Amino acid sequence: MASKKILVTGGAGFIGSNFVKLILNKYPEYKIINVDLLTYAGNLENLKEVCNKPNYTFIKADIRDREIIDHIFSRYIDSVVNFAAESHVDRSIEEPEVFLTTNVIGTQVLLDTAKKYWKINPNDKYCKEYKHGVKFIQVSTDEVYGSLGAEGMFVETMPLMPNSPYSASKASADMIVRAYHKTYSLPINITRCSNNYGPYQFPEKLIPLIINNCLKGKELPVYGDGMQIRDWLHVSDHCSAIDAVLHKGVDGEVYNVGGNNEKANIEIVKLIIKTLGKSEDLIKYVKDRPGHDRRYAIDSTKITSQLGWKPTYSFEQGMKETIEWYLKNTDWIKNIVSGDYVNFFDKMYSRI
Ligand code: NAD
Fold it and tell me: Which residues are catalytically annotated?
């Protein structure tokens, strides 16, 4: 397989940093350019083991900045994996605007630039010379489908019915990515993955939040009755799915990615409490999130049967390793819990 030069956006975040490391380890001949704005969620410490590799470059930049994005593409990118996003639902309820500018307009800037540097005719002399065809992978979420009742699973052909500003911004991005394929024949794929867990996740998300609060003996906020169901997938399995789509995805196709691990939020909280030997008295039920989706469940038959991907982690093993990782890396948590995060957390849970 020819060597690739991949632009990864949002590669200093949770999933992006795991993806950058997977690709650099698995394909040492590939080059990665990681573009990240380093918002509160971006952390270069996640990448310290690869930062000196000659085939890895980091550029601090905003995906909404056309000029710099154009400049980066002009250095012969052949694939884009777009992780960059505002990703936290609670924040999208408080301040939706940045979700629209980054998640929608930022994606459109990347698409426009990919279109500019992609040549329709693969036999074009310019394309042959520079191998300069740009493949665009949009990393999306199962949340774009909305909420399920007790039965059924999300399949790729379902209509998008997002319920939060976050999921609406991701659904909008999916639509514009699809449109660039239909209108301009840009080679794209969209992946829609369920909830991820694993190392390097920012501690505003359920699993690291509960681990961190348990370790500090702080109350464990649980929305509503805690019976919201999510399908959980280890971040490494999500990254291997994106790897499969990058190399084998059929242009224009959407692939669902999930772990077949449906768990209620309260089950996750109790599992962490038990593993850490803490008391369930720490649980504090708080007013439910507005528009809170009740259940997500994802059918991954398409990626499994067509691209040969399957998850490798059992939920039990993945959670055991994840909890151990956070126990070993308390300094990592301490270093990233910025003033911004503390203020946001206090504001969100001031009702406790
Ligand atoms: P994250 O919040 O941990 O990381 C997002 C990264 O994007 C950060 O490094 C941030 O600095 C960067 N970023 C934000 N705005 C930017 C901008 N304007 N320009 C450049 N960089 C910017 O998010 P994550 O959990 O790693 O999620 C990554 C992607 O995967 C997102 O697109 C998200 O919608 C999607 N996703 C996440 C999950 C999940 O469970 N976490 C599940 C499915 C899909």
Answer: 142-143, 166
- The minimum-distance atom of ligand 1 relative to the CA of 88 is 2
Q: Does residue 212 sit within a domain?
A: no
The reply to whether 220 falls in a domain is no
Pocket test for ligand 1, best of 83, 95, 98 (most atoms within 8 A of CB): 83
What's the structural domain count of the chain?
1
Distance 98 CA to ligand 1 centre (A): 13
Q: Is the CB of 14 under 6 A from ligand 1?
A: yes
Closest of 78, 50, 53, 73 to residue 61, by C-alpha: 73
Residue numbers in the chain where pLDDT is lower than 70: 1-2, 119-133, 338-352
Q: Residue 15: CB within 6 Å of ligand 1?
A: yes
**What pTM did the predictor assign?**
0.94
Identify the CA nearest to 113 among candidates 29, 22, 33, 18. 33
CATH number of the structural domain spanning residue 185: 3.40.50.720
Range of the domain at 42: 5-201+233-260+292-315
Instruction: Report the nearest-CA residue for atom 4 of ligand 1.
Output: 13
- ipTM here: 0.99
